[in-house]
Amino acid sequence: MLTFFNNTADDLGHTIINLQDGKYSHLRGTHLKTSTSLFYVNAVLLPILTSLFDHLAYCEYGSDLLLDEIQVASYKILQALYTLGTDPSLHRDRKYLKTEMEKYRPALGSCMGAFSSTFPVAFLEPHLNKNNPFSLLNRIADHSLEAQDIMAKMESAMPTLETILSEVDQFVESEKTYNDAPHIIDVIMPMLCSYLPFWWSQGPDNVSPTGGTHVSMVTAEHMNQLLKNVLKLIKKNIGNENSPWMTRIAAYTQQIIINSSEELLKDPFLPLAERVKKRTEVMFHKEESMRGFIKSASDDTSQIETQIQEDWHLLVRDIYSFYPLLIKYVDLQRNHWLRHNIPEAEDLYNCVAEIFNIWSKSQYFLREEQNFISANEIDNMVLIMPTATRRPVVPDGTQTSGGKKKKKHRDKKRDKEKEIQASLMVACLKRLLPVGLNLFAGREQELVQHCKDRFLKKIPEYDIVEFAKTQLTLPDKIDPADEMSWQHYLYSQLGSKKSVSVNVVDNNGKNLLEETVERIVAMSKVLYGLHMIDHPQQQQKGVYRSVVSTQRKRAVLSCFRQASLHSLPSRRNQKIAETVGRDCWEPQEKEPHSLVSG
Fold it and tell me: GO annotations under biological process (predicted)?
């Protein structure tokens, strides 16, 4: 391993020197102008290093392997990768170099993130290295001139944690775009999103060493600050076509949502959710207005439809950059919201519910979401399931992309149903559903279920509204003779709000009864939509429904798989007959003998 690390550090170091000195003849290949040693670095070294560091992080072997001479080589690799990813003057406006570096910059950032999640020394906090037993200062620095030299170079080449965080702050607050400073989003943010949670577990929030000798001073405040900047950045780029990084930012930012502050709900989670909801409403209104025009138009409308599809695709990209972070944050804060009735959480639920309702009605929304997932090879289950504080790694060696293609004609219907159920629109709404139900008193929650049942029976919405209004005006009494009185009593104990009174007006002049009826019908629509997704067979009419259970199907199939007697060889049939005859007749022949002897 030491040979590999040293050779890799030398290759990267020579590449950086050739770029800085302008020795482009050393970088060019002999066949094509674009065949440079950069291609070797990007296509060979970066994937190998990323897989290696991910494996070390998954197995927690970083503190066992990356020590002494290997740690010296690792510092050289870190310095070269950081320079290659953040120095915009290396390509010197040469087109082929610039194209090559821009193409593989996200892969370089992923490699930096993998390195940060396993390196046993807090390299962004060099002033604390003296407290770390794995640092070169406490191992070989006294007798190794190379170790002393690399430590001195790192202090001048690598910025500190506070410097990098302030650089991210300035970029987010300024009017700069991705093209002005792409390294901040592609390189620095993946590195920070792996570095902060890794060292937070060993920082002041979790460890209290004697004498205050901390190996890192990373706190939850650092992660909250970075998360806030990421969400602000997403909000600034909603609807921006020139933001390709939006498709991948959620995958590595989820790591820093560990001990997130409750104050992040007011700003920036709720404003961002409202921004996405407004854009979704605008898109649905545009789709509805264009639908009538497309039906009545006699000319070719393919360009209009293509534009609508592209706009929906862009909206899906924005949602997939935000919803994974929102789902993780909701999982952390939901119990707190339920206990304390946080009004901003109710507003957040309303935004997500409205987006879900539009997703259920739109002709393009779901289709473009599935196209986006397949085009970017996204695994929704990885985004939905609670992730660890480390980078997501595939431990069994399988690749997340490529490999063998699945059979196209196998269980198409079932796969489509699973895709719909695993949609982020459905997953996020289900996470927030307890918050939405907590808005109602117990009697109102029961009424929501009755309204949902009426939606399932295809009763018109205006009849359901009248039913809800009538039920709310009736006196709230439990009849002991009613078979369902126990259920009515349980519902009366649910919820955290009191039932509204008739003809009560709020401060804005609205009738609270009508407002409650609207909320009940809206919630029943949401539950109806979720029910139809979980039971898709109810949407189909005249469909053959199998009566045979799964166990009987398996029994029948196993019988079909058995070989019949007439197809077996004659010798085997003779042995079977002989064995069966012996088992059947021998006990009967022995029985008289036992009686005589008795």
Answer: release of sequestered calcium ion into cytosol by sarcoplasmic reticulum; striated muscle contraction
